[in-house]
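stuck on whats below:

***
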Amino acid sequence: MQKILLVVDMQNDFIDGALGTAEAEKIVPLVKEKIEGFDGTVLFTRDTHFDNYMETQEGKRLPVPHCIKGTEGWQIRKELDALRTTEAIDKLTFGSSELGQLLVKKNEEEPIESITVIGLCTDICVISNALLAKAFLPETEIRVDAKCCAGVTPQSHENALNAMSVCQIVIER
């Protein structure tokens, strides 16, 4: 049985860039420690937008250009990216169907015991990908390490953790 650690969108724009927060900066060393101590496969996602971001539905609702492919803000935080051993999964929206399909394939090759999700933002992409993993692999234990996540606000972080808990995702505090 294999274990997966999913590191969601630990990118410069979400840490100290266009949409950065103090809470996001605070979790970077915890995320690094979690990756370094993880016994299993580590996968990274990367929020990916293009020059036409402001013309997209997301851009109209969140008019802050961020994670534009090829920019410094799009890059995974340097000290975390140095630990990456697989290609990052570029996702064009909050959740990644490509990720779901990859998890199913990995599970067929060797059953997945658990998937632990960490990263940014708890209330947008972490919750989206945790629920997506639960939908693609309903009998696999999905976990979220709350200490290695940060939301847009502390309140929305807690709201997302509570919502995931109701959906049978194990929240590690």
Q: What stands out?
A: The chain has one domain: 2-172. The mean pLDDT is 98. Residues 22-36 form the longest helix (15 residues).
